[in-house]
Amino acid sequence: MAVQVAVCGPGRCSAAEWRRAQETGRLLALRSAVVLCGGYGGVMAAVAAGARSAGGVVVGVLSAADRSGAGPDLTVALPTGLGQARNHVIVNAADAVIVVGGSWGTLSELALAMRRGRVPVVQLGGWTVRDEQGRPPGGVLHARDPREAVAMTGLWP
Amino acid sequence: MAVQVAVCGPGRCSAAEWRRAQETGRLLALRSAVVLCGGYGGVMAAVAAGARSAGGVVVGVLSAADRSGAGPDLTVALPTGLGQARNHVIVNAADAVIVVGGSWGTLSELALAMRRGRVPVVQLGGWTVRDEQGRPPGGVLHARDPREAVAMTGLWP
Amino acid sequence: MAVQVAVCGPGRCSAAEWRRAQETGRLLALRSAVVLCGGYGGVMAAVAAGARSAGGVVVGVLSAADRSGAGPDLTVALPTGLGQARNHVIVNAADAVIVVGGSWGTLSELALAMRRGRVPVVQLGGWTVRDEQGRPPGGVLHARDPREAVAMTGLWP
Amino acid sequence: MAVQVAVCGPGRCSAAEWRRAQETGRLLALRSAVVLCGGYGGVMAAVAAGARSAGGVVVGVLSAADRSGAGPDLTVALPTGLGQARNHVIVNAADAVIVVGGSWGTLSELALAMRRGRVPVVQLGGWTVRDEQGRPPGGVLHARDPREAVAMTGLWP
Fold this sequence. Notes:
Four copies of one chain form a homotetramer. The first copy, chain A, is an alpha/beta fold. Chain A has helices at 15-30, 43-53, 86-92, 104-116, 146-152, and strands at residues 4-8, 34-37, 58-62, 76-79, 96-100, 121-124, 128-130, 141-142. Chain A has one domain (4-152): Rossmann fold, CATH 3.40.50. Helix content of chain A is 34%, strand content 20%. In chain A, strand 1, helix 1 (15-30) and strand 2 form a beta-alpha-beta unit. The mean pLDDT of chain A is 97. Chains in contact: A-B, A-C, A-D, B-C, B-D, C-D. Chains A, B, C, D: Pfam families: LDcluster4.
């Protein structure tokens, strides 16, 4: 079975984040990874567009109970009807998680991925977290660009 | 986006059920439908095998938190970690639901699909339901073979 | 911790079903059981009314994302936002499941409870299930009245 | 129906966090709020102990499929079998969310509560979040002690 990588990010994003997410999707599809995402706009749409441009398979795990609002580049759109509980499904189903940009929903996916703790979690920009001592809690990998993010997953040694 | 059809059935099945599920998967893939299933053995494995034999895309929505036990013919395996709550996801994400064979888990999927009520639900054999007056509650379609089941979804008029 | 019993049934019910559900709730509360239900009308409201009349604790596990439509007799209303996936939560959290009346949603709860398989499942009227040979699949207990239903849970020997 | 307040925090905590969580639970129960929590140890057990000491109702929404590991002071323990997707249920069911201490799981609850966006979210110590410009994303309230945290929910004006 193919490797599966979740790419998480906000439903609205800057042009720079769009390019990063799109390139990340493209690089993952070139490596034959299945891309998992939230299935809507912004970073989710960008990563789907990138993966599709390279002939990849993209699964959008939607929060809503129907497919309205789903992006145009998804291979499969799964309307879970679970609300934001679907964030857990996205990161739980992945062999690695890449986070592009920041929002509360995105942060919940980053935190759920770290809570799960079994797979690499790589951040490309976005929000940061500090513990009680003002230090990063540790464990999140930080990449400078999509190529480095994909490499940091460790899935293609 | 492609049409999506859920095929539900028990994790252990008879040889006749295996053939029916496999043929159903094959016919759906030939029509370019994405097949959704529970991702494990029995009917789930048979429908995946059939869809794959025709070059189709099959998504296994797993109850467990990891991919152990997932069938070999899935394009994507989504370990949801939701237990049997994943049955809701499978039927909620489908444009039509086909049920092959019977078990309590299978019946929960049939009932959740009928409770949702927006898409055709077709049974190929399996368990039956009677209301307080001993009559079928109505709404479930009954097919004699995979070809009729696929036709009864109404997705390919 | 108190014993927890789920009482499942349709959101619309007959007067006879209302009385059965209410009496079931009352009997459970008298035995200090926490009552779990779906939290809306019909059988769910009746069992909550009965439990409350005897000073019991009733938890309504709601499908919606907010409390609108929740019945007036719940001690706690949990809007899960999970849709019908919440049916899994209701029966999974119970030490016994009592089903009053029939509907597709109710049948999904009966089936999920039987699929789980660790606790007694008692039916008070409602729909029935037949396997491929026309026989009841076995395992569901059938009670004639609320008192017998509560006794059949085996929680108060 | 009673007001419902979720209190979130790590399963292991310092003595100072225990005292804060316990006092928060006590103050909420004195105001007749139902307390929702994750149902296990650390901050979850402390808030349950505090609420129970004041005669309050505490619901533990467990991630696991059974009640093993549930704290001793819960009025109701709901084993959801949803894994960390239950974090969404906890914060979605609350009229206000109070966060004590920090961990990845706790951060996911904070983020899910902020993503939901309809109710006050108050932090008592714990981890902090910075956006791309190094600023707090805004919206989270910060309290110095349990009394202030409870007041900041705005539920008892």
